[in-house]
Write the structure tokens for this entry.
Amino acid sequence: MDELIYTLKQQIIEALNLEDMKPEDIDENASLFGEGLGLDSIDALELIVMMEKNYGIKLKDPTQGKEIFKSVAVMADFIAKNRTK
Amino acid sequence: MMKHSVIITPEHVLVDGNPLEHNESGSTMLTDLYRKYIGDYPKFFKMDTLSKLGFIASELLLNIEGNRDFEPREDRAVILFNRNASLQADTHYQSTIQNPDNFFPSPAAFVYTLPNIVTGEIAIRNKYFGETSFIVIENYDEKIIEKNLRLAFQDPITTSIIGGWVDCEDEEHFEAKIFLMEK
């Protein structure tokens, strides 16, 4: 799981152009939206695309994103259980 | 009356006619200018080159004016012109949907497929609620630009305008000539 969390942090940094940020700077338990990383709605869409592209996960219900994108740790757990690639 | 001006090309930056020190060239130069003279707006890194160019030019322009209090105002318009619209962002977005077997439309690329996004970025940053327009014309034409800016001053609200040319063909070919005008 630690390896997946680290890879996920790298992929988030790349997909969202979080320049100046390293995987170590992201707290896997911190909120991705609002106070935490301060991501916005376009970032949420980009994360949905990233999950489909890299892990073959297609969100059937976009409102699921609210729960899944709570933190990197929650996201990694969801990916580990649902990935098809 | 023109108060201040900024010119940016891939090699040179002139602020009120004076060269501004910078490193690098092309779009890397824009990032260098951001780090050196701005640095408090991480959204910069998500922008396409056209928006980065307009954003940096407007920041340098407004830094000369000073008093960056970011108080909401309606009396300042942002009216820009160019030739290439948002062609670079359009091409980039197209590349994310070109291959049916690798079809992953990027929302972050898609949001920049309109040239007027750059005027929006400037207005959002500075809390301007006045007119914003982005007009695409065939070539740089001072007469057309002046005429449109003069018209903008006809309304009873606008007292100043960030106006001019912000054009981007690609990361190595771009030009901004913008100025701050007052009624």
